[in-house]
Design a protein that fits this description.
globular; 10 helices; two-stranded antiparallel ribbon; two-stranded antiparallel sheet; about 50% helix; alpha+beta; binds protoporphyrin IX containing FE; single chain
Length: about 260
């Protein structure tokens, strides 16, 4: 783990050094997240005319790591689980494609249209219920707390396993383990009756800061796939969800794609 961390930091540092050299040579580089971060940091340091304001290179590296790990694995796995489930439930794939074609035809999707995709929203809610990329939330107890019959001492770390909430028969009904996006037809709060039991993006002050962006980017990818391909699960697919930081299909997502 330590070796990997050193390697990752080294790789990011190389990218940053290259960008800083480009910036110093007057080339603009603020059209992506790293560019914006370096650009605003550089201006901040210049404004205060010293190096103690702004972020250090180490802090920029940590920001890059956080955004990459928090953003790439999660959204990637959400798309993978969506394709697996739509490859299994081709009736929902057809419904999703019909919606996409009625909103966009074969045009490149735009934000307005993406925000109007009701069926795809229902599908995403159901995918994130069954296979939330992040399966557990951790919280530190700051002061001695009574929780039912439990006495939790300050500094105790507790872990909430969201798979339990997301599969609870009392909340979701007898088909809790099945893929049924229809349950979200009237929105999340209707089905959860306002309880905090559906938390794919966490909750409270540390809720995922990019949940809207994540929904949008995965939607964009799925829409473009649905416009060009139909897909089904390959007979070689073996269903084995397992968690390595995020929830992933252990033996990969074997899908057969057909060009439309
Ligand atoms: C489907 C995609 C995603 C899922 C399921 C997801 C889920 C989560 C969850 C469960 C948390 C912890 C919240 C808590 O403890 O209450 C979290 C935090 C976070 N997420 Fe996401 N996330 C996704 C995409 C993204 C993306 C695309 C980014 C950034 C580009 C991102 C950035 C972050 C950051 C920075 C935090 C830490 C927030 C904090 O500690 O204050 N996430 N995410």
């Amino acid at each position: 783990m330590k070796e990997t961390d050193i390697e990752v930091k080294g790789l990011i540092r190389k990218i940053i050094d290259k960008r800083i050299m480009e910036m110093k040579a007057g080339e603009t580089s603020s059209d992506d997240l790293l560019g914006i971060l370096l650009d605003s940091n550089y201006k901040e340091i210049k404004r205060h005319e010293n190096n103690s304001s702004g972020l250090s290179i180490e802090e920029i590296i940590e920001e890059c790591k956080l955004f990459y790990l928090a953003g790439q694995e999660t959204a990637g796995n959400m798309l993978v689980w969506t394709m697996i489930l739509l490859g299994q439930h081709t009736d929902w794939q057809t419904r999703a494609r019909e919606e996409v074609l009625s909103v966009f035809g074969d045009k490149i999707p735009d934000i307005d249209g993406l925000n109007r995709l009701r069926t795809i929203n229902m599908i995403f809610n159901e995918v994130l219920r069954l296979y939330p990329p992040v399966t557990a939330l951790r919280r530190m107890i700051h002061k001695d707390t009574n929780l039912g019959n439990l006495r939790l001492q300050a500094q105790t770390m507790i872990q909430l396993n969201m798979l339990f909430f997301h599969h609870d028969l009392d909340i979701w009904g007898g088909d809790a383990h099945e893929f049924n996006p229809e349950r979200f037809s009237e929105g999340v709060s209707k089905v959860t009756k306002g309880q905090t039991v559906y938390v794919p993006f966490g909750g409270g002050p540390r809720i995922c800061i990019r949940q809207n962006f994540a929904m949008l980017e995965v939607k964009m990818a799925l829409v473009m796939i649905l416009q060009c391909f139909s897909f089904e699960l390959s007979p070689s697919y073996s269903h084995a969800p397992y968690t390595v930081i995020t929830l992933q299909p252990q033996f990969g997502a074997h899908l057969i794609l057909h060009k439309l």
